[in-house]
């Protein structure tokens, strides 16, 4: 058994539910960093991590940063030792290293680094040096470490912005507009017409969920009313249509009646493939991309094993291809960093699952990354902007186009229309999560996604907080169907950059 201990000077920097999201990662040829199953707890002022492995690894911890709220920070590589590490110092070491390494890497590729960024990186490095050399006085070391972390995050923001602007400028020298799709998930119901009339100015893609639970809420009885309306509206509005996910391996994606068949794999597989078959036959020629399946790695619905989920998804792809050989087929993965592996003893990380399906040569056209930021359970912690760039780069190794779907909360208050199982995380006060913070994150990160050639579609995963939805306050319209600031930013982004 492996055991790692880290002395924490200020435990209040770790949010109350933060231990559930601490993970230790090891190197993986495909994934880059892969979480290991571990048990995490406090013993006095020590953070203790127990795990089956004893190899060196990176530790990721939700950490409160003054003026920024909560962010997932990582150490550099740590090996097991008898003497505890000082957590604040190691988080500073990892954060500063990530800034410096990415800066040098992009500079070697031709990125022009402004003097202001070098100065910020040097300042962060000096503060880390003071922290590392002051560990005999833990309080002093922790204070220098906190300053180094803040400076390094500031540098990461600037570096991401510089990279995005220069990459977009290079692309625009070849074509003034990007053919990237910017889409919105319409949800399970057809929304108010006054609302949807506003969407074509901001989006060129609309996603109709067409899910099994929505269409066949009663066994053997299919209701296509809302799906027909969404597909037809997309056509009339001049938006490309994305159909799916047809199969969503989650509580909300499985009809209640299906649990009566739990344990009967053959029958459940047949029900799910029949839904794919009927949906593709009904809408082929009217849908521009099929999102066949999602959330098949992290969920454990209907007692399916990993092998059974893999089999169903493979057969669903083949079924969609059988009845529509021309339209691109995509599958989507939530928690694309594989965070769930830290608390579940599973074999397949998302990238491994995707790689297996690609190698099966089923005709898969693209991969979706569903990033639900600031939600638990099932979401992903807020990370520094370089982490999103590295995630895209890792998935790009599979050499398929990427569809990135995003959700981010605009409030930490109760949301009666949201799933009662999902909560927002990372807020100490009402000012930490607001419509303005949702908008600010989006404006800063969309250019990074646009700058990545592998990203061919960006989808906002929730339309309105006024209708039943999954993620609290994740829509671009509020509970009164009024647009949030993010809506205008998305519209400006589309008008400035996209066809």
How many structural domains?
2
Alpha carbon gap, first and last residue:
55 Å
Mean pLDDT: 93
The CATH H-level homologous superfamily of the largest domain: Glycosidases
Please give the CATH architecture of the largest domain: Alpha-Beta Barrel
Shape: globular
Proportion of helical residues:
25-40%
CATH class of the largest domain: Alpha Beta
Helices, by number, come to 12
Assembly state here? single chain
Unreliable residue stretches: none
Give the strand order of the largest sheet, numbering strands 1, 2, ... along the chain: 9-10-11-13-14-15-17-19
The fraction of residues assigned to DSSP E strands is 15-25%
The CATH topology of the largest domain comes to TIM Barrel
3D architecture notes:
This protein folds into two domains: 2-172, no CATH class; 181-497, TIM Barrel. The chain is globular, with a radius of gyration of 23 Å. It is built from twelve helices and 19 strands. Strands 9-10-11-13-14-15-17-19 form an eight-stranded parallel β-barrel, surrounded by five helices. It is an alpha/beta fold.
